[in-house]
Amino acid sequence: MPKVDMDMDRGRIVAWHVAEGTQVAKGDPLFDIETDKAAMEVEAQAAGILHHRAAEGTEVPIGKPVAWLYAADEAVGPSPAEIGASEAPAPGNAGSGAPGEDGRASAHAADDAGRRDARGGPLHPDRGAHAPLARAGAAPQEQADALAPRAGDSDPECGDRPRATPAARARARDAGIDLAGIAGSGPRGRVQRADIDALLTTATPAQPQRSGSLAVSRRGGGSGLPVVLLHGFGSDMTSWTPLEPHLGDRPLIRIDLPGHGRSAPDAMPDFAALAAAVRAAFDDLGLARAHLVGHSLGGALALALADTRPRQIAALTLIAPAGLGPQVNGPALAGICRATRADSLAPWLRTLVADPRRITDSYARLAMDARADPALRAAQTALADAIFPDGTQGFDLTAALDRLVPPARIVWGKADAIIPWQHALRAPGRVGLHLFDHIGHMPQIECPEEVGKIVGQPL
Amino acid sequence: MPDGYRDGNLPYAIRAYDADTLRAALRKMYLIRKFEEGAENSYTRGLIHGTMHLSIGQEASAVASCMALSDDDKITSTHRGHGHCVAKGADLGRMFAEFFGKETGYCRGRGGSMHIADPTKGNLGANGIVGGGLPIAVGAALSAKRLGTGAVTVCFFGDGANNEGAFHEALNMAAVWKLPVVFVCENNKYGMSTSTERSTAVKNIAERAAAYAMPGVTVDGNDFSAVAEAVDAAVARARAGDGPSLVENVTYRWRGHSKSDRNRYRTKEEIADWMARDPIPAFARLLVDHGVLTDADVADIEAETEQVIADAIAFAADSADPDPADVARDVYNPAAA
Amino acid sequence: MNAVTEAVRELSYAEALREAMDIALDRDPRVVLMGEDIGVYGGAFQVTGDLVHKYGTDRVMDTPISELGGAGVAVGAALTGLRPIFEFQFSDFATLAMEQIVNQAAKLRYMLGGAVSVPLVMRFPAGSGTGAAAQHSQSLEAWLAHVPGLKVVQPTTPEDAKGLLLAALDDPDPVMIFEHKILYKMKGPVPEGHYTTPIGTAAIRRTGRDLTIVASGIMVHKALEAAREMEADGIDAEVIDLRSVRPIDRDTILGSARKTGRLMIVHEAVKTLGIGAEISAMVAESDAFDYLDSPIIRLGGAECPIPYNPELEKAAVPQVPGILSAARDLAKGRV
Q1: Which phi and psi (to 5°) does residue A412 adopt?
Q2: Which of A51, C23, C186, C310 has the fewest CB atoms lying closer than 10 Å?
Q3: Cβ contacts of residue A340 below 8 Å, gap of 6+?
Q4: Nearest C-alpha in B relative to C119
């Protein structure tokens, strides 16, 4: 497990890109890891045949093996039972295939090798393969602080049991929903009845209205400036549900992007076409003034809309917006587009949030249900190809941000694994930045109360 | 003896009651004695669950105080109340059954020794609270007066209760409202271990009556005739509408306060002295001396009461225990809407 | 239908109680009133008023200042055929009579295996707000409600004051009526003639869907005031007047808790170990638990005797702003 972050002590293997028993070349992308703060792809340090992969979702301390690369003609040894476990002695020889970046790492590996020797395990010191995929080791002392348990929200006695009200528990029980990982909208993240209702609504959304060619739904009544909500790529309007209770009683208007939710799976050749569709839908709403809230791709579209309809946009809140830099987590986008089952969708959904426990299997099932239509998935795949070619953001709205007229702010989670939060730093000084530690790409789900407060603040 | 001599000097009981009534009174005294001895024996054999407060030695006070009462008249009793129950006509089998905690007991096993009552005979119940029955007796007398029933209430209490506030409040109200109640203090000289000399400012508890403007008299509580004479007069006064009285029957309990009493506060000599003044043989002697009964009659009565007690114990032992499922029955009257 | 209706007759709470006693004295010769200064004085709070002139001192009896003895006389009288209504001058003075209430009135029926009943009515002027301080302002209903054998009610309207008093007289068991002193002057519609309000039933004073406020005594009025203010925030509170502490109307409370999923209990008596704790536990132990969508909130008297200073006195018991803010937090899921 490589160290990719300053104060990282372990990394979670989010996904493997290479199957067990596959030949890899040096530099091939091998697996994705995620830490408290970052997620990244790790490349093979050497060529070989991949064996003994640590299971996806396991956390591996820095310097510990996550898999073995065998030479082509090498007999595959027994699976090291302790792989991925923090106390696991690392079998095998550091050798030349996995050079430590400093002496301590080497010594550490040598010590491991010695122990392996003592156990009489297979050693192939000369082959350069069968090496733990360690890129960097760190002395335990350096990790001491990071190893200390974080001051958590939950009582250690309660383990990972989610906070939830009896009503939420009962409803979840009835619906077969696992509470673990649901982002509760109540105090201390407590799951309340409305949170479960929102999940159930996701599974069976009401037939929305249309505006232009796009599906629109509203939360009527209330008072104040209407809030227009633009969701992100691969999502739909129901993703706003956790945030909505925190938006006071203001009228809400949710728009499904083309090829998303209940909107038609129309082909969008490029970002401009997409922005035009959203603009048409917005114009159809006939709003004199609105507060525009966009997430990710919806953030970019909100920016584009504000660029062309500055007088109607009273304020702009961009949550982890796209369009401010080239980087984007292409594999995640592709994985989401590709997934046909909850099992393959869930790992990618988990890259969206800082705490993957938020995405439970039942949540993933519901999300997959919402993506069940092959036409919708095909439209999204095509859209991804059009606007995120080769895993790159193919559109740039930094100029639009610079000339932005309405007051605006950007909300970003510093554990965003989809779009680097540093893109926020491109914003001109008059744009407010709200950056959250330990929050991923979905602040509106991961900390809805905070985001609600920000949206509610006058600009 | 010449008639004239007898008429002028006969004890009150002989003058006031016929032979059958006197025989029945003696029988009740024996029943009380045998009941309590039977209860004590049953306790020793482990048949009785709780404690008990025995009145052995006080039988004359209980029976003689109820001589003028009908079933319409009321009594309130005390924790040492077996004698009052029997005197007021209770069934011994049901008393034992209550002692044994059986469903056939007077309280269906819910009350035990300290709460035996028989409202059908005017017995409003023993009471586990010292002084608890005093205001209740006044209330019963208030009912009798308001409802015009003509009933009199005899309120038994011990020397310990005379220092409770309830005693003073009850006597005062009974006097203020001139109610038909007779306060009968059974002064057995000790409130648990504390003697009346150490606990009570007046020499005789009957002196307290003066504070409430009612007659107060102290009598030998082991002298059946003396008690009957004093209480009968008080009952007559109450029934006539002249208000309450206080009668103090000085007596002695042979046994300890309860089964936990180790008798550290009185001497063997004192106990022996009082046991020599056993009220039952004294009353039997009175009846024999005045030709009401023969010695053989007395022996027959005693033997008959032993059989009554044996039958009562057998009835109680054979009776069913209450069903625990009914534990909360009778908290409220089901007649409530 | 004829739209014209007769003007509803209004009486004060004290007048309604007096009317109930008047009806009872008139229709049942067994009824007697007992208490300190309830005769020509008319009662410390003028509840018995001039009844002594109508029924005489034999039926409207001034007792000596003897709470224990007086209560016991009432117990004995109830046991033997009268229907006493015993007034404590202040509920605080009932502490002097606890022996008779708790050991005798409550237990006689049970101890005697169901052989007797104690159809006794006792009235307890209770509560704070009069500047009478610690020994004349308590709310001790929970003490008595803890004793099986007693029934405890807390009427909050003139109509219920009359109806519950007449129901208590019909009841074969001892019924303790806690009357909040501040309510004595409150006016409200009161039906004519004899009627009863069933003991053991709560009253839903306001239906709502967002949260349930179970209140007792004067707190019902404070809760209703708070509920009206909450309307402006779009919060729709259901307010239940507990009305009967023992027996408690389980069905109404649980039904409302199931409906709203959010429960708040407000009483003037000290919060700790109070009726709110009982209701809270009752809901937590029932199937209504599954419907709760937030923790249960209790508001009750502070951990102190009722103080004299008017501001301190207010601070010692729940007030409308406190109810309002707690209810808002509860309704908005912020608790």
Answers
A1: -145, 145
A2: C310
A3: A377
A4: B333
Q: Count chain B–chain C contacts defined by CB atoms under 8 A.
A: 167
User: Which pairing describes strands A68-70 and A131-132: parallel, antiparallel, or unpaired?
Assistant: antiparallel
Question: What's the CATH number where A46 sits?
Answer: 2.40.50.100
C289 touches A at CB < 8 Å: yes
Instruction: Tell me which of C15, C19, C36, C67 is the catalytic residue.
Output: C67
Residue A52: give the domain boundaries: 10-147
What number of CA atoms fall less than 13 Å from residue B222's CA on the CB side? 18
Count of domains for chain A = 2
Minimal C-alpha gap between B210 and chain C (Å):
18
Q: Six-digit token pair at B273?
A: 């002295």
In chain A, which residue's Cα lies nearest the Cα of C262? A167
CA-based angle B23:B24:B30, to the nearest 5? 90
d(CA B334, CA A373): 66
| B146/C82 touch (CB, cutoff 8 Å), yes or no | yes
Instruction: List per-residue pLDDT tens for chain B, 337 residues long.
Output: 344 445 568 999 999 999 999 999 999 999 999 999 999 998 888 888 788 899 999 999 999 999 999 999 999 999 999 999 999 999 999 999 999 999 999 999 999 989 999 999 999 999 999 999 999 999 999 999 999 999 999 999 999 999 999 999 999 999 999 999 999 999 999 999 999 999 999 999 999 999 999 999 999 999 999 999 999 999 999 999 999 999 999 999 999 988 778 888 999 999 999 999 999 999 999 999 999 999 999 999 999 999 999 999 999 999 999 999 999 999 999 887 5
Amino acid identity at B194: T
User: Are A186 and C261 an interchain contact pair (Cβ–Cβ within 8 Å)?
Assistant: no
The span from the CA of C265 to the CA of B334, in Å, is 30
State the smallest CA–CA distance between residue C290 and chain A in angstroms.
5
CB B221 within 8 A of CB B61: yes
What domains are defined for chain B?
Answer: 15-316 (3.40.50.970)
Report whether C243 contacts C163 (CB < 8 A).
Answer: no
Chains touching C (3+ CB pairs < 8 Å): A, B
Q: How far, in Å, CA of A108 to CA of A63, rounded?
A: 9
Amino acid (1-letter code) at residue A169: R
Which fold would CATH assign to domain C10-189?
Answer: Rossmann fold (3.40.50)
Look up the CATH architecture of domain C203-331: 3-Layer(aba) Sandwich (3.40)
Check if the beta carbon of residue C141 is closer than 8 Å to that of residue C172.
no
